[in-house]
Amino acid sequence: MKNIYVTSPLLAPLDEFIPYLEEIWQNKQLTNGGPFHQQLEATLAEYLGVKHICLFSNGTLALLTALQALRIHGEVITTPYSFVATSHTLLWNGLTPVFADIDPDTCNIDPGKIEQLITPATTAIVPVHCYGIPCDVERIQSIADAWGLKVIYDAAHAFGVKVDNQSILNFGDLSVLSFHATKVFNTFEGGAIICSDLKMKQRIDFLKNFGFLDETTVVAPGINAKMNEVQAAFGLVQLKHIDAGLAKREEIYQRYRKYLDAIDGIESFSVPESVEWNYPYYPISVESNYGLTRDELYEQFKTIDVYARRYFYPLISSFSMYRGFPSADESKLPIANEVAKKILCLPIYPDLTEEDQMKIINFIKENTKVTQATSTLP
Q1: Any idea which residues carry the catalytic annotation?
Q2: By C-alpha distance, which of 155, 166, 106, 104 is closest to 133?
Q3: Could you tell me the pTM of the whole model?
Q4: Whether residue 289 is found in the same domain as residue 348
Q5: Is residue 5 part of a domain?
Q6: What range does the record give for the signal peptide (predicted)?
């Protein structure tokens, strides 16, 4: 029996990739801003509706560099409900993460909790568009403007997402994308920083290439975070199929909604009508009136070779390097702690067959029936 995972990294057939590899082999430029790198930057900027994009070898290095590019220091308000890279990049930059609780409907940082955490040491806010659902960007920007703070969006899940026909990536001072294999659009590994002015793009490009201005001049203490030509070529191939992939994801999403909404104790997320979404995940909340707990359902799925994911559990604030911060106290993050115990992300990717999806849906339905029937026995 084949294993079914949360996502699949491939949108294009292998034979489309081979000519790109042959060209890389012939021109012998493997990295350092080669032709495919430049082509992917231009193509992505047009597709996403953004002014400037800086490609990176992965999203974590992109976020690390975004903090450097804006010269962030001191304290940074962020969310505990994310992948650990969001906060790890703060520690690597010598910054202090300050965790704000989340909105239970979106799992994004709650703007109403941000202002009370601001101190004289606060310099930035790093929100996450969790599951590609946009943060309340207007309220966050209003707070940032009032207090003179920078805003860097961790937009790892938000490739192609729009609000009122505008790219969500254009909000904040910078937005950071991930092109990891688990993402809607991927380059095996990869990432990018979105910025709105050429001067900032030039600074970021210096920082991702050791700070080199030219062959003999170094203008910044940069690192090596460049996307290579193989990654860029893979991205160009994937991009040709992204719209078809998104349409297939929407079809799978709608099928989940149709059947799961009828199951007691299983709640799906709703996306505002103003949002053009990318269907990156299908998170469900396993409530107390479902027969099993979230963790029990998670383990039961493994018995049929379905590997769902508890995104995001544990909370970042619960890990040893963070739990000592005052803002990490569970009593200050009640919603995030509760949500982290309930969410399970189901498989959703373009080549997930209807047969396999119905296997997942029926398994959820049958497990609650068995449990509910058992619980009524004397």
Answers
A1: 183
A2: 106
A3: 0.96
A4: yes
A5: no
A6: none
Q: At what angle do helices 35-48 and 14-27 cross, to 10 degrees?
A: 130
Domain identity same for 203 and 331: no
* Inside any domain, residue 307: yes
Cα–Cα distance, 158 to 129 (Å, whole number): 6
Q: Residue 357 has which token pair?
A: 């999806």
Q: 322, 328 in Cβ contact below 8 A?
A: yes
Looking at the fold, whether 235 and 325 belong to one and the same domain comes out as no
d(CA 66, CA 61): 8
Count of domains for the chain = 2
Can you say whether residue 131 is alpha, beta or left, with left for phi > 0 and alpha for psi between -120 and 50 degrees? left
Q: Position 298: which residue type?
A: Y
What number of other Cβ atoms are within 10 A of residue 145's Cβ? 10
Last residue of a domain, one of 239, 262, 293: 239
Question: Domain of 325?
Answer: 242-375
Asked whether residue 151 is domain-assigned, the answer is yes
**By three-state DSSP, how is residue 276 classified?**
strand
CATH number for the domain spanning 49: value is: 3.40.640.10
Phi/psi of residue 229, each to 5°? Answer: -70, -35
Written as tens digits, the pLDDT of the chain (378 aa) is: 589 999 988 888 889 999 999 999 999 999 999 999 999 999 999 999 999 999 999 999 999 999 999 999 999 999 999 999 999 999 999 999 999 999 999 999 999 999 999 999 999 999 999 999 999 999 999 999 999 999 999 999 999 999 999 999 999 999 999 999 999 999 999 999 999 999 999 999 999 999 999 999 999 999 999 999 999 999 999 999 999 999 999 999 999 999 999 999 999 999 999 999 999 999 999 999 999 999 999 999 999 999 999 999 999 999 999 999 999 999 999 999 999 999 999 999 999 999 999 999 999 999 875 555 444 333
- The contacts of residue 7 (CB under 8 Å, 6+ apart) are 181, 182, 183, 347, 348, 349
Same-domain check for residues 29 and 160? yes
State whether 212 and 329 are in the same domain. Answer: no
Q: Could you tell me the two tokens for 325? A: 């911060």
Write the single-letter amino acid at 316: I
Domain boundary among 239, 274, 302: 239
